[in-house]
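Structural prep section.
Before we set up the soaks we want a predicted structure of the protein with flavin-adenine dinucleotide in place, mainly to decide which crystallisation condition to try first. Input record follows.
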Amino acid sequence: MTQDDGTPQSGGPRAAEPLVSNGKFRETEVLIVGGGMVGLTLGIALASAGLRSTIVDRADPARLTTAPHDGRSSAIARGSQQALAALGIWHRMADGAQPIMDIRVSDGQVGRNAAPFFLHYAQDDLDAGTAGPLGYIVENRVTREALYARAAQLRDLTLLAPAAIAALDRNPGAVEAELDDGTRLKAQVVVAAEGRMSKLRQAAGIKITTWDYPQCGIVATIHHDRPHNGVAYEHFLPAGPFAMLPMTDTADGQHRSSLVWTERRDLVPAMMKLSDKDFTTELTRRFGTSLGTLREVGGRWSYPLSLLHAERIVDRRLALVGDAAHGIHPISGQGLNLGLRDVAALAETLVDARRLGLDLGGGEVLAGYARWRRFDNMALIAVTDGLNRLFSNDVAPLRMVRDLGLAAVNQMPPLKRFFMRHAMGLVGDLPRLVKGEAL
Ligand SMILES: Cc1cc2nc3c(=O)[nH]c(=O)nc-3n(C[C@H](O)[C@H](O)[C@H](O)COP(=O)(O)OP(=O)(O)OC[C@H]3O[C@@H](n4cnc5c(N)ncnc54)[C@H](O)[C@@H]3O)c2cc1C
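Run finished without errors. Recording the tokens verbatim:
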């Protein structure tokens, strides 16, 4: 990452001190609007391959790495981990990454109406080629810190934050933008990585299909007496999936898990107001005591859940990545992973185009990216939505069908392995980064 004068910075996240001054002009190859986990990874991928890239984010990086901003942890699939490793990011977050050794899926409340059918994914089920953890759980805060630290090393990457786009024109020859402090930018292509409410997507007139789920995700960190041994639990309760995801122990040896509790939207305000003691009682009623006594620590967050699908992910000199292109239910912890696969595909497309001397914002180049991502994006949107509909209810015939389905998958090793490889992000036409290769 460079200061305005091109001097490489060292050190961690850097809020934009007055990096730029009024009337300044900056030429870049790729302009990325939105420096969340997806936009930052894209900037790092492109700049590592020598493409001059500029990220503009309206938020202050110092705020995004503090726990009160985002209490979430994310399941990082194996394919995403391989991409982060290939980009020199993973080793900065590995100490905070808990390997998932085992996933236990059950239908119903533990100890009460739990179905006899149970789906059990263990790393031993994998074939030799994919042996190892099924994925990792990492606090978003830890991932962001690793991304800022890696970004700071890259001469070809500039982060302007906090900063906002005041005007942007995608004309046939180039993208021209002006920031609210008067800085002018020129690029060959602009990438929308601004999350679900993407202004660039709206300005391009790209239609979206979207609906709200009648659910919110309640997120908290839970301490427990017994070690989790790397097991991730997902119980399908009538209100929605209820997950306890294993986290690394704290420095003083406390065992922790990340709770993602999907609950009916109308009940969530009351749940958020419960005292710690009452919340823990409700939690224990649903999860049981297999991890010993549970204690909630460090706050509680709630996220309204919705689905979003952009009808196109490219337009003139514009590409969408991450939640700007698709927002999915967190039922299988895949939203960020999907975004990172967008990043890997777009970075490879742009780097290859540059090697061939092509215009990075050219229609054919961007169409190639859109074709590449179409199937994966559509499939995950459909699968996560379908799973949520199938499991978030207590209708007896549906329950029987899904429980038989779980049991059948559990009994069929090849099918089970296929689902596991899918969840690990290792199926399909994989970009080089996802295979752990350099761009
Ligand atoms: C409860 C919950 C649990 C989840 N768990 C998982 C999980 O386990 N695994 C997983 O893979 N995914 C998970 N997800 C999904 C995942 O969090 C998202 O898919 C991911 O964070 C999207 O990243 P992003 O960078 O595309 O968007 P965002 O995180 O929304 O980042 C957008 C960035 O753009 C900036 N921005 C916005 N507008 C502008 C603008 N106009 N100008 C400049 N900057 C702008 C913002 O400041 C922000 O930094 C979960 C989601 C939820 C709600």
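Observations: The pocket of flavin-adenine dinucleotide is lined by residues 33-39, 56-59, 72, 74-75, 164-165, 193-195, 199, 217, 219, 260, 303, 322-323, 330, 333-337, 339 (CB under 6 Å).
Flagged for discussion at group meeting.
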